[in-house]
Fold this protein.
Amino acid sequence: MALLVSMKFWRDTKRSPYFFMRQQAAKKMQSYLSVAVVLLLLGAGIGVYGWRTPTDTTLRMALLTNTKPVKEDIRELMSQPTASEMAERETTMASAQSGGVANLLLNSDQAAALSPELPAAYDRFEPTAELQPDTSLGTVVLSSDVTENYQAINPTSIFGEGFYTLYATFEYKGMLDGMEWAWVWRHNGKVIDGGNELWAYGDEGPGYIFLSPEEGFLEGAYSVEVWVNGEMLGQASATMNDAAISAGN
């Protein structure tokens, strides 16, 4: 169509009786010719790309159903480790021996995380009230925000890394003023924060504690424990990982 229109203006440049009409027709003819050339080049490029032979990336496998059985001597050779495998085994054994102390410490941290003990730094008071049979803290819930009544907003067990406040909320009952209570925060099993005091908040109601580290939350596992008179009555854990948040887990 651009070519046809440009031909029309070319005819006008030849037949127009006035000079300015011929000039105007010539300018319009140049514009439509330029558009026609661009469209032709674009169509040629698309045509060349479309007629290319596609690259076949399909993985193909053949099932050999009538192969001969492997001879016994060849099977023995195949089962023997290669020189590179032997070297790798020796390196692994040497690393395990040299890192025995580190492995022992790591295993001890893992064991502590599975069966934690109340650190002495958070067991400094002598309770003046005994633990009651109905004393409980309910389920400890983790969230990054709470309501005015200390109810968790969008609780979860996976959080992102960075700077924010992590709340641990719970519903307590059967508590007596004078009980010793403590809270302990851990990162990958290592104690990073906590507190200890005598209870003075009544026998039941909503409660909360929070953590907002100066360095921000790092990647790894965080956990909180709530102790009353030396017994752990509540515990919760969460994973801080930006990749898991991005994946929607």
